[in-house]
Amino acid sequence: MIDFIDIVYGLAWGDEGKGKISNALAKDYNYVCRWNGGPNAGHTVYVNGTKFKTHIIPSGIFAGKPSIIGPGCVINIEKFFEEIRGLRAAGFDTSLVKISPNAHIITENHIEYDKEHLAHLGTTSQGIAPCYSDKMLRRGRRAIEMMESQWIWDGVLSGSVLCEGAQSVWLDIDHGDYPFVTSSTTMPYGACSLGFSPKKIERLIGVAKIYDTKSGVDPLFPETLWDDPVLDQIIQQGGEFGTTTGRKRLVNWLNLDKLIDAIRISGCTNLIINKCDVLNKIGVFKVIHEGKLVEFPDLTKMNDYIDDVVFEQESDVEDIIYSGSPEGLEFNYTK
Ligand code: IMP
Ligand code: MG
Predict the structure, then answer these.
(1) In the CATH hierarchy, which top-level class contains the domain 2-322?
(2) Is the pTM here over 0.90, yes or no?
(3) Which of 150, 213, 228, 329 has its CA 20 to 30 A from that of 178?
């Protein structure tokens, strides 16, 4: 019997620091689940001061919780086992990781097609879109055919469940900046594909960043942004290089208009804004609001302004957390 579901998901273009948040929360739940994407994702988490990078394995693994890869995910078997070996060597109990029998498998052909035909969209070259295409064409290979039974999930969830999103609202196949999107449902309603009633959802924990970034091509992020020396300082200070691709990300000031839209269409109840320390180090504080740049003397004034704008909207947001330190965050919603 499921008591309740909380969902952590991204409100921007990915790379908001979702991994840090779900890792901080995981210990309070019975299950941690991924519902979308595959090795295109990159989660960076710190566990007792050591940095770990995962791509497909849910962060429940770091908290010793059953970690489920849902039917809406896509798996690169080789990369999956690479990750398993790394985690096992670091002392984590990898027998907790289970994969839905219905998850689809990425093949060499998918990766080749991605590299050859989709580079102009700035994809991660992991074979994501071709794999989801074959799934929709109903000719894909699934985990049940390709993986040993010890890895296959029995479909059971119980108690409290944390779902962690990969990619984010503006990369969603239906709501994002198509075609500069990924091929899955990044919106939190996609979590229901794991097999539970939407009525069980309690918190929709939306993660944003105090500035915007895009990894890969997008007309909303013209390459001229790279010419701005202050934005370049943010790239360096914030380490804005892709976890999966190593590419330098395009950076812009936080677009509050987009953030408000993302909050509204996804139903965010708890907003977390990450990486505030980066702006503090640079000492320049700006947002884009109603299409115009607004500048502030310090972070507190900027946060007050964001609070006012967000709470003024007719949204479900109950609280806003501003977060700095990259190494983790001690908080929970469940107590
Ligand atoms: P794909 O998911 O590899 O097809 O890439 C499609 C778009 O989504 C590209 O712009 C990628 O840079 C972006 N993308 C995919 N996964 C992530 C992620 O985990 N973080 C940030 N951007 C991502
Ligand atoms: Mg990421």
Answers:
(1) alpha beta
(2) yes
(3) 228
